[in-house]
From TrEMBL:
Pfam families: HIG_1_N (PF04588)
Name the record gives this protein: HIG1 domain family member 2A-like
UniProt keyword Secreted, yes or no: no
Residues covered by the HIG1 domain: 29-114
Gene3D superfamilies: 6.10.140.1320
Any one GO biological process: mitochondrial respirasome assembly
GO cellular component terms attached to this protein's record: mitochondrial membrane
Keywords: Membrane, Transmembrane, Transmembrane helix
Bias type Polar residues, positions: 9-20
């Protein structure tokens, strides 16, 4: 035998308020959360200036390395072997200074953020 079909009756009273549909054009409202605005992308020049102010020895070391290399190559081309050798040794010193400055900057940045 087939069971008699009874219509489904909702137990909600007609006076209760329905939640509004999700509006996808607006971000959701989360209680206790205030969203931050997105940070502005910094340009290459702004980032370079910020990084140079944080650790000024790195650009100084890079300029010293490039300068010693250029003058050393110039002296080599002119046949001044003694001066060229001294400038290449100076370049090695400047490169070492730059590496130490980078490592020092990394450690100070890591310690500063904690």
């Amino acid at each position: 035998m087939a069971a008699a079909a009874t219509p489904f009756v909702s137990e909600q009273s007609p006076t209760t308020t329905q939640q509004p549909m999700l509006d996808i054009s607006k971000p959701p409202v989360i209680e206790g959360f205030t969203p931050l605005s997105r940070p502005r992308e910094e340009t290459f020049q702004e980032k370079f200036m910020r990084k140079s102010k944080e650790n000024p020895f790195v650009p100084i070391g890079c300029l010293g390395t490039a300068g010693a290399l250029m003058y050393g190559l110039r002296a080599f081309k002119q046949g001044k072997t003694r001066q060229s050798q001294l400038l290449m040794r100076g370049r090695i010193f400047a490169q070492g200074f730059t590496v130490v400055a980078v490592i020092f900057g990394v450690f100070t940045t890591a310690l500063r953020k904690d």
